Amino acid sequence: MSRTDIEHLRRRARRHHRASRVAVYLLAVLAALGAAGPFIWAGITAFKENRDLYRRSNNPFLFNLTPTSEHVSYLFNSTDFPTFVWNTLWVGLLVTAITLGLGLPAAYSLARLDRPWSGPMAIAIFFVYLVPPTLLFLSLSRVVVAAGLQDRTWSLVLVYPTITIPVSVWLLMGFLRSIPKDIEEQAMVDGYSRLGAFVRIVVPLMFPGVVAVVVFAFTLTASEFIYALAFVSPSGEKPISTGVPTALVRGDVFFWQSLQAATILVAVPIALIFNLFLERFIAGFTHGAVKG
Amino acid sequence: MTERSLSPPRGSGQGDAVPPQAPAPVDLRVRRRFADRDRLLAWVFLLPSIGYIVALVAIPFFLAIAFSFSDVTAGDPSFDWAGLRNYQNVFDDPVFWRSLRNTIVFTVVSMALIVVLGKVLANILIADFRGKWLVRFLVLLPWTTPVALSTIAWLWLLDSVFSPIDWVLRELGVIEANMYWLGKPDLAIGSVIVVHVWRLVPLAAVIMMAGLVAIPKDVQEAASVDGAGFWRRMFEITIPLTMPIIAVAALFGAILTFTDMAVVYVLTRGGPTNSTQVLASWAFFRGIEGGDVGQGAAIALFLFPLLLAAAIAILRAVRRMDVS
């Protein structure tokens, strides 16, 4: 092959490379805009004056009048939004604690204490994850009434672990499998009991996985809709997911700017935290699946 | 993307280093004691979770079946056998058939779109480029945001008067009057599907990324050296190798579309005139807002056979991943 041939090939490869780079960037920008579009629109809306927003001829993507934060402060000062946030937070924390308290030992039992029934049981738990709230909300609403928790946020604390426990057990099993067995066997040789090895050695090693599960369980409870809608109707007891769409709408009057501000204020922090742990979720799910 | 951050350095090695002839009788006895305890511990560790799930998933599930044969209402919760009356009433109601059809149509169409777009998105997210973190953050927003809230963003995006989409179309001269996205049955159905696809594509992409990462790099490289181009590698290597995980992503997309009622509830409330009603939302309107628990339960139970089929399919796909 002559030198010019090589030169020619090299140039073609470079051109090809550059074209594919452009394509990657183009697709990435398109994907980002497609996914975030509604949120960008919500973000613009949240800071608009009424006179600017409700005029059909105005360019909706620009601020035709100076931006205002009055609707954001309305959201915090004149609506139940802060209560919703607070309800979601404490429900989420309690549910996460219950989930870990029940889920960690269960995952350990299934992943480590090899019993003949471990495999089928793990699969049964996975199936429970697939039983949706839509199938259970009617009978659970009677259970909630029977427990005297109707119209109270506590009903959600009772019910949400049914959603979070199965998926958390599945994730935790995945994380457990990535910890070598020798470590706790060594601890037991050193005189720890099985329980002691689990509490003192395994749980600390699982810390990253546990944090990931905390985030996951928390976001699951924050997004849940149908139970919260079916069990809790007084505005002051509602979490964000039902409070914002139902209580911030008065009849046919939509406080659009405040509604959109609420959406952004909830969406962005959750997505940020989730992003930090994305790789861990992927690791947990794939490990959990390897030997289901 | 690996267990890099998770797996601690491998033991102190002493456990492995014990020579096989070393275990003394004492050691054996200790071992056996541990084994005995393990059996007990395995149950003690598992029972609280099992108890919780039985009490709040299994029993309510059978309760739902029982309710569907009863005359329980919110006002009169006493249980009286009603035989097949609820099912009779449900079948006689054209809205039920409409909901059933909508549920299936929404699920099938969304699933197809979710798989194709999720695959594209997974390939984008796995490529190297600058600003990847920001793109990933923006792309994941639809999935991580509580459904009811992101649907509110869509409700405003599709507003009958102030929709920016209508504004753009008007400026371009494509339309004269507004589209009324949520006011016409066909457009409303399309809108619901778009919202489902939009919120679930990121999840499908994340699941597929996990699969893409698992393909050994050398397979790709070998094919590349052999002169296989991007599309050929895609269709002859990547897709066949990750087929099981693509199936898992598809089924998750299907299950989450099929069991969801938040999108329909917030976006259209089943309207216009029940044309976007799905089983989940219809069961809610009947059972909670209408107070007819028995009928609502009967409607919701129609989700179950399809769900079971999807769950078994997921499990099969996961099993096939194990073998390969």
Automatic annotation (TrEMBL), chain A:
The chain crosses the membrane at residues 21-44, 89-111, 123-145, 157-176, 197-220, 254-278. PROSITE patterns: ABC_TM1 (PS50928). It is found in: Cell membrane. It is a multi-pass membrane protein. InterPro entries: BP-dep_ABC_trans_perm, MetI-like, MetI-like_sf. Signal peptide: none annotated. GO terms for biological process: transmembrane transport. Keywords: Cell membrane, Membrane, Transmembrane, Transmembrane helix, Transport. Gene3D superfamilies: MetI-like (1.10.3720.10). It holds the Pfam family BPD_transp_1. Its main location: membrane. CDD domains: TM_PBP2. The keyword Transit peptide does not apply. One of its GO terms (cellular component) is plasma membrane. Residues 85-277 form the ABC transmembrane type-1 domain. Belongs to the binding-protein-dependent transport system permease family. This is Carbohydrate ABC transporter permease. It comes from Kribbella turkmenica.
UniProtKB/TrEMBL annotation, chain B:
Residues 1-23 are annotated as: Disordered. One of its GO terms (biological process) is transmembrane transport. One of its GO terms (cellular component) is plasma membrane. InterPro entries: MetI-like (IPR000515), MetI-like_sf (IPR035906). Keywords: Cell membrane, Membrane, Transmembrane, Transmembrane helix, Transport. CDD domains: TM_PBP2 (cd06261). It is found in: Cell membrane. It is a multi-pass membrane protein. It comes from the Bacteria. The keyword Magnesium does not apply. Its main location: membrane. Residues 100-316 form the ABC transmembrane type-1 domain. The chain crosses the membrane at residues 40-69, 104-126, 133-157, 187-215, 241-267, 297-318. Belongs to the binding-protein-dependent transport system permease family. PANTHER family: BLR7065 PROTEIN, SPERMIDINE_PUTRESCINE TRANSPORT SYSTEM PERMEASE PROTEIN. This is Sugar ABC transporter permease. It comes from Kribbella turkmenica.
